[in-house]
Design a protein that fits this description.
Elements (H helix, E strand, L loop, with lengths): L2 H15 L16 E2 H11 L4 H12 L11 E2 L10 H4 L22 H13 L3 H27 L10 E2 L14 H5 L26 H16 L4 H7 L4 E2 L1 H20 L3 H20 L10 E3 L5 E2 L8 H5 L3 H12 L36 H14 L2 H15 L7 E2 L6 E2 L5 H11 L1
Antiparallel strand pairs: 1-2, 3-4, 4-5, 5-6, 7-8
Helix pairs in contact: 1-16, 2-3, 2-5, 2-16, 3-5, 3-6, 5-6, 5-10, 6-10, 6-11, 10-11, 14-15
The structure holds (alpha-D-glucopyranosyloxy)acetic acid.
(alpha-D-glucopyranosyloxy)acetic acid (9YW) binds next to α2.
Length: 437
């Protein structure tokens, strides 16, 4: 077998091992449930193996959609082992949650249309039955995906700024990124029920994970949301953390365009039009956030109105959603330049989650510096969408070198290249499989 074939076989094996018959768990022991954006990336990989299995994964996630349109960030499986589990989330307090299965009460970035498009593409090369199943699924579920996008674009962006707000850094998918440091200084946990972290048991070294203070704040926000039964308007009133997330808003733009194309293929121009309105507003919102001083896009603290300038990968949101060619080419240059992918000390030329040139950079601690294969994949996927095959090829080549250790780790040390976090992480295996075709 060639090196690539061996790696692809290893990735497919991880997906088989992490399949519990209903869902693919995000990671074998650290994350034994279905996570929303993980499920999307996992589906991209699954589509390469089996179209029906890929459809089943998205179907299960969609079955947990809330009546508001929100797709929850965790759909819990009937196992213990992760904190906070359903008993801390207490989403049964909300009339909007699904009757079953139990879910968390927040969301994650909207990348699901990319998964849907990957299934349709795989089906095109597959059997007639695959093609029929994929088309029917797009047609039958389109309104649910549309409701998800519209919930983000309206309920989470009441002033239609083009940047939607999040109420917990878990909603960004980048839990402890320096992006959230300033808003978290304004989150001061009060008296709260005690809890025991479960995550530290699954990593070699606690410095690879968020701190205890981070966790107190994370759980404080969960308790605040539960205290108002996850009512969208009430959460906005009581929550200590309200931040416009520029990276996720760029993903909403990209995903809305991709979903609009799918809507066209199943004869739904009405839905396509609504999605393109969301895509344009989000893209404009992202462009308007760019700092003239740094050239990076910025999040915004809704509670104080302040722009948050951090040297994190979130700053490259315009490279995800595209837009003004001048902006995209300036961002591309910065992205490949010496403070980012071109930093001389990086082992592999893929984006570190924080610039090594920045004081907040920490090479081991989760979203504060390590490189995440799924993030590399997103930038490559977005580059393909814009016709920038050169950038997509660079990211693919470097990512496959990084992944050649065969550990399919959650994240990687940007300087040494060492594997970090969980091993055999489903989404890492999935994007490897997609890259290996
Ligand atoms: C946690 C599952 C999730 C990802 C997130 C990542 C982490 C969960 O794992 O969050 O408990 O820390 O930050 O992006 O979806 O892989």
């Amino acid at each position: 077998m060639t090196v690539d074939a061996t790696l692809a076989e290893g990735a497919a094996q991880v997906l088989r091992d992490n399949d519990n018959g209903v869902i693919l768990v995000a990671a074998p022991s650290l994350y034994p449930h279905q996570w929303s954006w993980d499920a999307a990336f996992i589906t991209v990989g699954l589509a390469r193996v089996s179209v029906p299995r890929a459809l089943a994964e998205l179907s299960w996630l969609l079955g947990a959609q809330w009546q508001t349109g929100m797709i929850p960030h965790i759909v819990f499986d009937a196992v213990d082992g992760y904190f906070p589990g359903p008993e801390r989330w207490r989403t049964e307090l909300s009339p909007n949650r699904p009757a079953t299965p139990p879910t968390s009460g927040i969301c994650q970035p909207p990348v699901h249309s990319l998964a849907l498009a990957a299934i349709v593409e795989a089906a095109r090369h597959g059997s007639a039955a695959d093609r029929r199943a994929a088309t029917e699924f797009v047609r039958d579920t389109l309104d649910q995906w549309l409701a998800w996008h519209e919930w983000l674009a309206t309920v989470r962006d009441p002033d239609r700024t083009g940047l939607f707000e999040i109420h917990h850094s878990w909603e960004s998918g980048m839990d402890n990124s320096p992006r959230w440091d300033a808003p978290y200084t304004r989150v001061t946990p009060g008296v709260m029920a005690p809890f025991v972290r479960r995550d530290l048991a699954h990593v070699e070294d606690a410095t690879e994970r968020p701190t205890d203070l981070d966790y107190r704040r994370y759980i404080w926000l969960v308790d605040q949301m539960a205290s108002v039964r996850y009512d969208d308007a009430d959460v906005q009133r009581v929550i200590d953390f309200r931040v416009s997330d520029v990276f996720s808003s760029a993903l909403l733009a990209l995903s809305s365009d991709v979903l609009a194309e799918l809507a066209d293929t199943v004869g739904r121009p009405d839905a396509a039009d609504r999605l393109r309105v969301i895509a344009k507003r989000s893209r404009d919102g992202v462009a308007a956030s760019v700092s003239p001083a740094t050239g990076l896009a910025r999040d915004r603290d809704v509670r104080t109105g302040e722009w948050l300038s951090t040297a994190t990968v979130g700053g490259f949101a315009p490279l995800l959603c595209g837009g003004d060619p001048g902006l995209v080419s300036a961002q591309r240059e910065l992205f490949l330049g010496p403070e980012w992918c071109g930093h001389p000390e990086l082992r592999y030329a893929v984006p570190p989650t924080t610039s090594p040139a920045d004081a907040a950079f920490h090479p081991r601690r989760y979203w504060r510096g390590p490189q995440w294969p799924v993030i590399n994949w997103l930038f490559a996927r977005a580059a393909v969408e814009r016709g920038d095959d050169e950038l997509a090829g660079l990211l693919r080549g470097e990512s496959l070198r990084q992944l050649s250790d065969g550990s399919f780790s959650e994240y990687y040390h940007p300087l040494s290249g060492a594997a970090l976090g969980s091993r055999n992480q489903s989404w890492t295996a999935a994007v490897a499989l997609d890259w290996l075709g």
